[in-house]
Design a protein that fits this description.
Chain lengths: 250, 453
């Protein structure tokens, strides 16, 4: 019985080694007679949400195939797939160009930006914006990479801006909510959300916000912002979200 | 490969009779799937369960008898150590006492039973009485192995309870002294009525009901080893705290360390019921903490940045804790001593979560996606690892995303959560991955926790 098993195992191993080494050949030999044309790049660019009020954030996500260089106007060269948070102040069409041996392909995504309501009427004094709107415009949520609780480099400036706003409004206390996308374990995601919110809290504290003004609650994947089962939706859910603490304002 | 084979053999020492399955199975680590038609295991005990003899003319008797017969047969089939004689092969006789049974009839083909369980059931004036016997068919003339009397109120729930008791006695008598699990309970989280709250059910999925409401939502129920208390994590207005509910007092009892700042998650009882481990972010980051059950001796065991959660004690020694840490990125399973020393990483990659330590201290069950990553082909499956050798066995395959395994008290079964098409249901299986059975149907049930007895 054992020897038959060993033969069988040997066969399986040989087959899998053959498969693995086959996979690693980067330039398979093509039949000389019919050299295939290089495939044109495929590119996809989405902006979520596609309509916002000035000051809100938009998540741009893109992916490409068969491209050797990818760029987005205004951002320059970008990885072949990625996600970026932007805050357009006016209606903007983002334009991605993917170039490869098979040619160039474009993809665009338009974000319609509506002016903040009535803010135009009283430019000097923001009293027509509610405290909540002011807070949201200045203390903006930050987003995280897949399974990461490290604040992205670009988001440190978002947090600095938030810290400056909080320094100017010392009465405001803040709840930092930690959120995860729907994938993975409930229990682990609660601590992952906690670590995300804690990462944001630590940077705010380094930027001078008093620790007793910051409260952290992890929601894990219990309170998603977006409930579709797509990467752009998951990206929106991997966040540290800021809101005014109801207990504050004394 | 040969190590895998040896490991399989060790694994099944969990239950001596399960051993038989593996000596006949292939040595591969994947797809050791024997299926529900277990090989005619010469080492599985061939057992017949006769239908109970109804006694008396009380109108309740036939219905209660039907419930009892069905429940007993299911419990014995589910035990993992018997090859049950199907009802169609068994004699139709319903012997109601040792004087009435013809053992040769049960020992002969086609039943070929090595043992037979039988007895009588009667309801009268709202009272249910069951007499049960277990006898060795091939040694006629010897005394019955078991002679039992069970009684309770005459209702369907109690008929099931008495059948569970008889089943557990039979399993204990024939299963190497390890009592069955038919009387055990499973605690879980259900969102079927809106917010996630803690529920309880019998081990076979019967009798599902809510236990206690707390906060905006609750997660991670863990029953104490003596079944007297339930610890769980609850999100309230002041954040996540560990709550402690007493079944004896029918109210919450104080557990101060679970509410002293930060977010507090995933409580775990030591096997002696004297200590609690949990995850708390009170020091700025989720770490594993332990304390006495009365709140004293609070200690922080981990100190790396990143999530540390889901602790579980070695229930045999209470001297080690397994838990999940994201200190290197994706979550992995680790074990350490209860003073925080001797940290050992158990999984070598992927996304590994939700450990449960086997009652004999030898194995960890956990959920693992070995090829985790965006677009990667892996699945989140239940695995059992032999702690001494780090050899593992995959128990679920190609069927949804599987998480939160917990061992049954006899170490022969696991309960777990399975998500398929965005519906999450609870299942049990034998500790070799066979006999998978769905217990809940709402699609909104999570995080099962099996009672200790």
């Amino acid at each position: 019985m054992i020897s038959r098993k060993q033969i069988w195992i040997a066969l399986v191993l040989t087959a899998s080694v053959a498969m693995i080494s086959g996979c690693k050949k980067k330039h398979p030999i093509q039949p000389a007679a019919t050299p295939p044309a290089a495939a044109s790049p495929v590119a996809q660019l989405t902006a979520t949400p596609s309509t916002i009020t000035a000051g809100d954030q938009v998540v741009l996500s893109w992916k490409t195939t068969d491209a050797t260089s990818v760029s987005i106007d205004g951002m320059g060269s970008v990885p072949s797939a990625g996600v970026k948070t932007v805050t357009p102040t006016q209606t903007t069409t983002y334009h991605l160009t993917a170039s490869g041996p098979g040619g160039n392909t474009d993809a665009t995504a338009t974000v319609t930006v509506n002016p903040a309501q009535a803010a135009v009427a009283v430019p000097q004094n923001n009293s027509s914006m509610t405290a909540e709107q002011m807070f949201k415009a200045n203390v903006q949520d930050i987003f995280f990479d897949y399974d990461s609780y490290n604040v992205r480099t670009g988001d440190e400036s978002v947090l600095s801006k938030a810290a400056a706003y909080l320094a100017a409004h010392p009465d405001i206390k803040v709840v930092i909510g930690g959120y995860c996308d729907e994938r993975g374990s409930n229990e682990y995601n609660l601590t992952l959300g906690q670590s995300r919110a804690d990462s944001a809290r630590k940077i705010l504290e380094q930027d001078g916000v008093a620790p007793n003004r910051l409260r952290v609650v992890s929601y894990g994947k219990e309170r998603p912002f977006c409930s579709e089962h797509t990467e752009s939706c998951w990206q929106q859910n991997r966040r540290a979200g800021f809101s005014m603490d109801g207990a504050a304002g004394n | 490969m040969m190590h895998g084979f040896r490991f399989l053999r060790r694994l099944v020492l969990v239950g001596t009779a399960i051993c038989a399955l593996f000596s006949l199975s292939a040595p591969a680590q994947d797809w050791v799937h024997i299926g529900s038609n277990i090989p005619t295991g010469s080492q599985r005990i061939r057992l017949a369960a006769a239908d109970m003899k109804p006694v008396g003319s009380d109108p309740q008797t036939p219905l209660l008898k039907a419930t009892f017969d069905t429940t007993l047969f299911h419990d014995l089939s589910n035990a993992g150590i018997f090859e049950m004689v199907s009802k169609s092969m068994a004699p139709t006789a319903m012997p109601g006492s040792p004087q009435e049974i013809n053992l040769a009839q049960w020992a002969a083909a086609p039943a070929n039973a090595a043992f037979v369980a039988y007895g009588a059931l009667s309801a009268s004036n709202g009272h249910l009485v069951v007499y049960g016997w277990l006898q060795d068919d091939r040694n006629a003339g010897t005394a019955p192995i078991l002679t039992r009397q069970y009684s309770a109120d005459a209702n369907d729930d109690q008929a099931r309870t008495l059948a569970h008791q008889f089943a557990d006695d039979i399993i204990g008598a024939l299963g190497g002294g390890v009592r069955g699990i038919a009387e055990s309970k499973i605690y879980f989280v259900s969102a079927r009525n809106g917010s996630k709250q803690i529920w309880e059910m019998d081990y076979d999925g019967q009798n599902q009901h809510p236990v206690v409401r707390a906060g905006i939502l609750s997660e991670s129920p863990r029953i104490s080893p003596d079944n007297s208390r339930l610890a769980f994590a609850s999100l309230g207005n002041s954040g996540w705290t560990i709550r402690m509910y007493s079944f004896d007092l029918r109210r919450f009892v104080a557990f101060p360390p679970g509410a002293q700042g930060g977010s507090n998650f995933s409580p775990a009882w030591s096997g002696d019921g004297q200590h609690i481990a949990f995850s708390s972010s009170r020091s700025g980051d989720p770490d594993i903490w332990t304390c006495d059950v009365n709140g004293g001796n609070l200690k922080k065991l981990t100190a790396f940045r990143g999530p540390d959660v889901s602790p579980v004690w070695n229930p045999r020694t209470n001297a080690q804790i397994a838990w999940v840490s994201g200190r290197t990125g994706l979550p992995q399973i680790y074990i350490m001593d209860t003073d925080g020393g001797n940290v050992e990483r158990m999984t070598d990659g992927g996304y590994a979560i939700s450990p449960s330590w086997s009652p004999n201290g030898q194995f960890l069950a956990f959920s693992w996606n070995r090829k985790y990553g965006p677009g990667a082909p892996g699945g989140q499956d239940i695995y059992v690892m032999d702690i001494a050798s780090l050899r593992w066995l995959q128990l679920t395959h190609d069927s949804g995303s599987n998480d939160f395994p917990t061992w049954s008290p006899d170490g022969r079964h696991l309960v777990f959560e399975r998500t398929l098409d965005y519906k999450t249901t609870l299942w049990t299986m034998l500790a070799d991955g066979t006999q998978q059975q769905q217990l809940t149907q709402t699609g909104k049930d999570f995080m099962p926790n099996w009672s200790w007895k």
